[in-house]
Write a structure and sequence with these properties.
Layout: H1 20-43, E1 46-49, E2 55-57, E3 59-75, E4 80-82, E5 87-91, E6 98-99, E7 104-109, H2 111-171, H3 177-234, E8 237-239, E9 244-249, E10 256-257, E11 262-268, E12 272-279, E13 291-296, E14 299-313, E15 316-323, E16 336-353, E17 363-368, E18 371-376, E19 378-382, E20 386-391, E21 398-400, E22 412-416
Parallel strand pairs: 1-22
Antiparallel strand pairs: 2-21, 3-12, 3-16, 4-11, 5-7, 5-10, 6-9, 7-8, 9-11, 12-15, 13-14, 13-16, 14-15, 16-20, 17-18, 17-21, 18-22, 19-20
Helix pairs in contact: 2-3
């Protein structure tokens, strides 16, 4: 009897296929999805991949527009000291040494100035002697004028008495009429002489006083000259006008210097400012008093824009910032700072992240359900990272913020995921 393999066979149940209704539903849904995609793609003017674009949501929030710049810390007061006269300079303090106000920091050896001072002092002494001599001459001249006037006054009194005697004698016919008339003429002559003498004495006295006054003025002028030179001599001793440190020597030790030549600087450590370089494109938007946020290392400080230079150098303008924070006392000369100058701030402003799309014009592609539709919009203020939207968009809208140059003339885009 021949054995077969029937004992090794296993009965396998047949697989049950999907029911016809379920298969119909799945097929219909796939057909609808395919139809929608095909319809959307058919109605779009252009197709782009989502990976090739950047998008952002429109939202409301605090809109801040500011200028970012860098600068350095400088002393508010760092005066330069100058030589009062030509001579040889001797520095008594080294750069970096601390000094107090009115402390001697340098001196100038100027033999020429000392010689000029001695000459001017001699001229002053000569002017004083001339004035004293003239004062004595004035006394003598006035005394002489007084004597002459007194003699004329006595002659006048004698003429008056002679006329009285002549009148009495003429009444009793002791003298002739001729003698009586002569006495009258003598009195008239004496009166004229007296009047002229008084006027002449007054004029000569004024002339004498004028000459004396001229010498007094010359003396005063020479006294001012001497005082000015003495002031220059005092300034040969150079003192610090502030409490601080010696910044640097502009001249070398024991060098010959000219008059009004800068010698050294002194840095006042009691107050600092920030010196900034700002691109000239923002120059017209800056004005003193603007709020400034300052970063020094890891420290945040507050400040106010104090001044803006009207001069443009290397496509930038210089500005000064005053620190208003108490912790600014820890600053150091030439320390690096980063600042943000607040130009504008708006609460609850409609805005979107800034992107290259603004270069194409006043429109944006708004994305919804896989399609991006071109929509006109109106921009407001622009900051470094945000754009204010005045009209055309609403909160929650998603727009393309990357460059749209390649499809800016299209009206509808299909976003291919």
């Amino acid at each position: 009897m021949i054995r077969d393999t029937s004992a090794q066979d296993t009965i396998v149940e047949p697989k049950r296929s999907l029911s016809k209704p379920l298969l119909f539903v799945v097929s219909a849904m796939a057909l609808v999805a395919l139809t929608y995609v095909s319809f959307a793609n058919f109605n779009a003017d252009y197709s782009v991949s989502r990976d090739s674009i950047r998008t952002a949501l429109v939202a409301r929030g605090n809109f801040v527009r500011q200028i970012n710049a860098t600068g350095r810390v400088v002393a508010t007061n760092s005066p330069s000291l100058y030589s009062a006269a030509a001579g040889r300079v001797t520095f008594l303090k080294q750069p970096g040494e601390t000094v107090t106000k009115n402390q001697i920091v340098a001196s100038i050896d100027s033999p020429e100035l000392l010689n000029v001072v001695a000459q001017e002092q001699n001229i002053l002494q000569s002017a004083e002697l001339n004035l004293q001599r003239k004062a004595l001459e004035v006394k003598q001249q006035k005394l002489s004028l007084k004597k002459s006037l007194d003699v004329i006054r006595v002659n006048h009194m004698a003429a008056v008495r002679e006329l009285k005697r002549a009148e009495t004698s003429f009444k009793i016919r002791v003298i002739s009429e001729f003698d009586y008339a002569k006495a009258k003429d003598n009195l008239l002559t004496a009166e004229l002489n007296l009047d002229n003498a008084k006027a002449e004495t007054e004029i000569k006295s004024d002339m004498i006083d004028f000459e004396l006054k001229t010498l007094k003025i010359d003396l005063s002028r020479q006294l001012l000259v001497v005082k000015d030179y003495q002031r220059q001599v005092e300034q040969l001793i150079i003192r610090s006008p502030v409490t601080g440190i010696i910044g640097n020597w502009i001249e070398q030790q024991d060098n010959k210097v000219g008059q009004n030549q800068p010698l050294l600087t002194v840095v006042d450590l009691s107050a600092y400012e920030g010196e900034l370089e700002i691109p000239q494109t923002y120059a017209n938007e800056l004005s003193p008093g603007m709020t400034v946020n300052i970063r020094v290392g890891n420290e945040q400080l507050k400040g106010k824009l104090r001044s803006v230079s009207p001069e443009v150098q290397d496509n930038s303008v210089k500005a000064r910032v005053a620190f208003i924070d108490d912790s600014a006392a820890s600053l150091r000369q030439n320390q690096h700072i980063s600042v943000g100058i607040l130009l504008e701030q708006k609460d609850n402003a409609l805005q979107v992240k800034r992107g290259s799309f603004i270069q194409a014009g006043n429109f944006a592609f708004v994305i919804k359900d896989g399609l991006a539709v071109k929509r006109p919009i109106k921009f407001g203020s622009r900051s470094l990272d945000s754009l204010e939207i005045l009209s055309g968009l609403k909160p929650g809208d998603e727009i393309i913020i990357s460059s749209v140059e390649s499809f800016k003339d299209q009206q509808t885009l299909y976003i291919n995921d």
